[in-house]
Each structure stands twice: as structure tokens, then as C-alpha cells.
Amino acid sequence: MRLHARPATPWGAILLGVAVLAAGTLTLLHLDRLPFAICAFKALTGLPCPTCGSTRAAAQLAHLDVAGGFAMNPLFVTAAGVLTAWGLADLLLMGRQRALALEVAPPIERALRAAAVAAILANWAYLIATGR
């Protein structure tokens, strides 16, 4: 596994910009305070989907309440932290016309995919257990 800067599209910076715009829209329109659930899975089954609580977690993060966001959806907050670090690194590298790139050997790639699936399932179990 190798993390390095190379000439490439700065996807981290682009995604960070989109996330900042989304957080601003969420905050201005108070989308975390809607009087109804917008999750079709939850409406049909009564159970939270694997991403339930993400809107409220994003609102908490927009107010710099990391603990509150983590309580709403731990995986979302963790992913937001990784995205922020990646985006900031890409912003720093843009002056040199570079972007972060991650190269992973196939066996490690499979392990990372398995870890991602395990993290999604663990997060979903947490959301069900807490009644999100």
C-alpha cells in the first residue's frame, strides 16, 4: 500500500467543496428538523437503513458537535473526517498541481473491502440498537 502525491484530479478537494455546500444548505434550510422521515427503508420496515442519522450527524458536524454527530451515525462522522483530511491534503497539493493517490495491492484491496463491509454492518447494528 502506498500513499503519494501525483498529477491527478483533486477528487478529495472537489468532494470537500461539495460537502461544505451540502452542510451549508442543510444548516440554512434546517433539513435535520423535518417533521417526517425521508428514509423510504425506515418508512417501509420501521428499521433504520445503514445511513439513517446521516443528515442529523451532518447538522451536528456543521455546528462543530463531533460527539453529537458520532451518536447519530458513527460511520458517517468517520467518513466525513477522512474526507476532510483528504480534501485538505489535496487543497495543499493543488499549488503543485498534484493530488493524493492511494495504490493498494490486490490482497490488501480485498481486505479493505471486507473491512468496509464489516464497518457498514457494525454501524447498521448500532443504528438499530439505538433506534435511530
Succession of helices and strands: EHHHHHEH
Report the sheet with the most strands, covering strand number, pairing sense and barrel closure: 2 strands, antiparallel
Q: Could you give the distance between the termini? A: 36 Å
- Please tell me the total number of domains: 1
With helices defined by DSSP (H or I, 4 residues minimum), what is the helix count?
6
Query: How much of the sequence is in beta strands?
Result: 5-15%
Average of per-residue pLDDT values: 87
Percent helix range: 55-70%
- Main sheet: which strands, in order across? 1-2
The low-confidence parts are none
Estimated radius of gyration: 17 Å
Structural class: mainly alpha
Taken from the alpha-carbon principal axes, the silhouette is globular
Instruction: Work out the number of β strands.
Output: 2
Kindly describe this structure.
- The protein is mainly alpha-helical and 132 residues long.
- The protein has one domain (2-130).
- It is 66% helix and 8% strand.
- It contains six helices and two strands.
- It has helices spanning 11-29, 40-45, 54-62, 66-72, 74-94, 106-130, and strands spanning 2-6, 99-103.
- The protein has a two-stranded antiparallel sheet.
- Helix 1 (11-29) crosses helix 3 (54-62) and helix 1 (11-29) packs across helix 5 (74-94).
- The longest helix is centred in the C-terminal third of the chain and has 25 residues, at 106-130.
- It is globular and about 45 Å long.
- It starts with a strand and ends with a helix.
